[in-house]
């Protein structure tokens, strides 16, 4: 029964039905799960800034905070898996006027995976980041970065997607220049300029979108996009979004900024950037192009597929040409973006399942690979293939972990990288895109050669007599972060069914957003 509000004025009493504008049901604790992860990161970031001079407390507070974040994200994913998408609006105003946070399976899975790698990187950073790095704000920047990333995954408003992009971009600037070396400043400049261009394109597209639809709520846009498709220039709008997010994700031909910048910061920062930040661009492409503009995605599918094929193959060839391990992984990241772009171009539910599976796996895998080559450089005293050798004899167990990660990165069975590549290849064949399936296989073959070459030269080849002196031993708790991520990679490789099922559920919500829309606009809500 609608709630009535009686307003007494000089004239007759007026009756206002608040249920037409506000959410009248009490907010349950479970509803707060959707905003608590963001609030936690912002709150702890502020706390760390207030105690910025007590740097010995930064690591334990951050690690405890990220452990709580993983718990909150896991509870959020469990609720979505059990009850479907749900929405919480700020100020209790009904959408599209109220700013919405909406969690579906895609957003919840991305947020949970991001929280896991952030926790692992915070543990690694306790040994990797020195007093100077902590004093200049590594952990507050890391908290702010995760607030932006998590907010981007959970927002239901496209302008706030832009806002969270800005939050993570500002914090990433701080992380990439930490250390203030000439190389870092040069890499940060390239990173900043290209990302600011992409962000500007994103903002222009958002303004264009509001002019067309008169709303920024994603569920509202998803309902209206089909109706206005005949009269509005939605292909132009979709092209702007695709270009902006392709720059964020480092897809061809706007990918040259990534290998020029990701090798410059601390290795734990490179791990977060390579593992997590590029996937925010892929997530945005899934959300906007698949859920909001499916017809326009279909019209642009061939262009996206061409970009995907070139990204895959040129990224793999770039990795094969590198001598520096960090640059090699930068090109492996780029090649992986191509696989996910290929799935978006195909657009079937099976292909989108492969994209989600690949993205979640890549977040964990690329983070683990960057952390592993950081240990490799400490063990061998160099970052280059020409300067390393004989590492298997020094650290056989660590070498075995790196080999497992390289197998997963190459997409070889039975490791986790094999399954999403197989899903994407089959999806391409199913729609008759043989050339795209061939590109996936060729890129995978070249990546296998690049990673095999790196392992043979760094680990299997005998150490040269003039090799640089090793600067660390690989034993004790320092290997725990890499070991945890490697165990996850191996477990998913041998038991992929659960993640496949979750990825299929996520793809189903993207392809058919009716449940997402119902969570935002329940029956009787104002539209």
Uncertain runs are 1-7
Biggest pleated-sheet summary: 2 strands, antiparallel
Reading the helices and strands in chain order gives EEHHHEEHHHHHHHHHHHHHHHHHHHH
The number of helical segments is 23
Total beta strands: 4
So what's the oligomer here?
Answer: single chain
Helix amount: over 70%
| Helix/strand class | mainly alpha
- Calculate the mean pLDDT score and round it: 87
Question: How are the strands of the biggest sheet laid out side by side?
Answer: 1-2
Radius of gyration, in Å, reads 23 Å
Beta-strand content bin: under 5%
What characteristic shape results from the CA principal axes? globular
Annotation keywords:
single chain; 527 residues; mainly alpha; two-stranded antiparallel sheet; two-stranded antiparallel ribbon; 23 helices
Give an overview in words.
Helix 4 crosses helix 22 (497-511) and helix 12 (267-292) packs parallel to helix 15 (325-346). The relative contact order is 0.10. The protein is mainly alpha-helical. It starts with a strand and ends in a 7-residue tail after the last helix. The protein has a two-stranded antiparallel ribbon with strand order 1-2. A two-stranded antiparallel ribbon has the order 3-4. It has helices spanning 29-32, 36-50, 58-83, 105-128, 131-135, 138-154, 158-176, 182-213, 218-228, 234-249, 257-261, 267-292, 294-299, 301-320, 325-346, 349-380, 391-394, 396-410, 418-430, 434-460, 480-494, 497-511, 514-520, and strands at residues 4-7, 14-17, 86-89, 100-103.
């Amino acid at each position: 029964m609608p709630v009535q509000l009686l307003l007494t004025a000089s004239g007759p009493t007026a009756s206002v039905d608040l249920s037409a504008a506000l959410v009248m049901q009490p907010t349950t604790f479970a509803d707060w799960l959707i905003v608590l992860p963001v609030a936690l990161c912002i709150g702890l970031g502020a706390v760390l800034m207030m105690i910025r001079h007590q740097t010995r407390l930064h690591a334990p507070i951050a690690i405890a905070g990220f452990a709580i974040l993983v718990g909150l994200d896991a509870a959020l994913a469990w609720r979505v898996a059990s009850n479907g998408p749900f929405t919480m609006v700020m100020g209790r105003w009904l959408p599209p006027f109220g700013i919405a946070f909406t969690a579906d399976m895609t957003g919840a899975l991305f947020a949970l995976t991001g929280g896991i790698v952030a926790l692992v990187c915070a543990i690694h950073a306790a040994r990797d980041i020195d007093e100077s790095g902590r004093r200049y704000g590594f952990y507050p920047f890391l908290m702010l970065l995760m607030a932006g990333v998590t907010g981007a995954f959970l927002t239901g408003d496209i302008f706030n997607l832009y806002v969270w992009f800005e939050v993570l971009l500002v914090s990433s600037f701080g992380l990439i220049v930490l250390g203030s070396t000439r190389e870092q400043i040069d890499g940060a400049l390239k990173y900043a300029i290209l990302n600011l261009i992409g962000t500007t394109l994103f903002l222009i597209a958002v303004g264009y979108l509001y002019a067309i639809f008169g709303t920024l709520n994603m569920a509202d846009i998803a309902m209206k996009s089909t109706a206005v498709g005949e009269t509005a220039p939605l292909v132009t709008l979709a092209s702007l979004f695709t270009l902006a997010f392709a720059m964020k994700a480092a897809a061809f031909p706007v990918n040259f900024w990534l290998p020029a910048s990701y090798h410059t910061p601390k290795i734990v920062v490179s791990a977060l950037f390579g593992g997590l930040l590029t996937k925010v661009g892929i997530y945005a492409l899934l959300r906007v192009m698949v859920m909001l503009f499916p017809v326009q995605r279909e019209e642009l599918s061939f262009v996206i597929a061409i970009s995907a094929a070139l990204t895959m193959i040129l990224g793999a060839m770039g990795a094969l040409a590198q001598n520096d391990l960090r640059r090699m992984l930068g090109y492996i990241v780029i090649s992986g973006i191509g696989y996910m772009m290929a799935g978006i171009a195909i657009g079937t539910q099976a292909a989108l399942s492969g994209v989600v599976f690949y993205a979640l796996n890549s977040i964990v895998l690329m983070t683990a690979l960057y952390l592993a080559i950081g240990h490799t450089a400490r063990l061998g005293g160099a970052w280059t293939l020409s300067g390393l050798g004989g590492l298997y004899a020094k650290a056989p167990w660590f070498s075995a972990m790196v080999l497992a990660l390289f197998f997963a990165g190459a997409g070889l069975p039975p490791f986790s990288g094999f399954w999403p590549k197989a899903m994407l290849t089959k999806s391409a064949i199913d729609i008759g895109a043989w050339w795209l399936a061939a590109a996936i296989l060729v890129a995978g073959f070249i990546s296998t050669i690049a990673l095999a070459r790196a392992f043979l030269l760094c680990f299997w080849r005998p150490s040269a007599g003039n090799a640089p002196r090793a600067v660390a031993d690989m034993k004790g708790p320092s290997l725990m972060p890499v070991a945890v991520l490697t165990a996850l990679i191996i477990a998913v490789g041998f038991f992929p069914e659960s993640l496949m099922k979750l990825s299929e559920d996520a793809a189903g919500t993207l392809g058919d957003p009716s449940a997402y829309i119902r969570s935002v606009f329940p029956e009787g809500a104002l539209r």
